[in-house]
Specification:
Blueprint: E1 4-8, H1 13-24, E2 29-33, H2 44-49, E3 58-61, E4 64-67, H3 69-79, H4 91-104, H5 108-126, H6 132-153, H7 167-177, H8 191-204, H9 207-227
Parallel strand pairs: 1-2
Antiparallel strand pairs: 1-3, 3-4
Helix pairs in contact: 1-7, 1-9, 4-7, 5-6
């Protein structure tokens, strides 16, 4: 099938999720990097040619433009197709994947994202130190959300939506790795989450590790400076 243009930045967890997914599911996408830190998504040209929203990821399929990672997965399923377990046809199985994808917005994605922005991105952009009180509050919020992953989502099943891996696991794994940039280990003291993460990584590698290289590099730096 014909490939579509895929705009992404590896700094964005949903971008990493999609580029990893397209690779492991053999979906023909033409990856086009966009540098968020340089504001390349804020230009008039970007709005005209790429997406009406100043965000990533997004695709352009022969002139049809679409943003929002979950919408992109559903569109690719209908137009290109991929193995069923990633996003099942079965109504109930699909609903369980959707349940996580709906839940994560105000939970894992939000808490991991806010923590990362406050502790790492904003200080880099502004040159000002992060507000420690706010960082501590956001770290506690992130820990509570990760505990819900540990004790609720992964209580009984090897994967988020049941016995088989799905796109829910890819999105989750990419989101929970984001705080590693700040030297935060999301798996610490969470045996279910750690075992799940190993299973997911095994299914997605080498693509997953390749697309998280720079996160691990910064994470190691953060841990080194924390020791000083």
């Amino acid at each position: 099938s014909v490939s579509f243009k895929f705009y992404y930045d590896l700094l964005s967890p949903p971008s990493r999720a999609l580029i990893t997914f397209f690779r492991v599911a053999n979906i023909p996408a033409e990856p086009i990097p966009v540098a968020l830190r340089k504001g390349e998504h804020l230009t008039e040209q970007y709005r005209r040619d790429v997406s009406r929203f100043p965000k990533l990821p997004c695709i352009n399929d022969q002139g049809f433009k679409l943003s929002e990672s979950v919408a992109i997965v559903r569109y690719v399923k209908r137009t290109r197709g991929f193995e069923d377990f990633w996003y099942p046809e079965d109504v109930k199985a699909q609903a369980l994947v959707d349940e996580y994808l709906s839940w994560t917005h105000n939970n894992i994605r939000m808490s991991a994202g806010l923590y990362f922005i406050t502790k790492w991105r904003t200080p880099i952009l502004t040159g000002k130190e992060a507000d420690e009180k706010q960082v501590k509050r956001l770290e506690e919020q992130l820990s509570r959300t990760l505990d819900v992953m540990e004790n609720v989502w992964l209580e009984r099943n090897p994967f988020i939506a049941g016995e088989s891996i799905s796109v829910a696991d890819i999105f989750a794994a990419c989101d929970i790795e984001q705080p590693r940039i700040c030297g935060f280990n999301p798996l610490s003291s969470r045996p279910n989450l750690s075992a799940w993460f190993s299973r997911v990584k095994e299914k997605l590698d080498p693509s997953f590790t390749e697309h998280h290289k720079f996160i691990y590099k910064y994470g190691e730096r953060a841990q080194e400076s924390a020791k000083l």
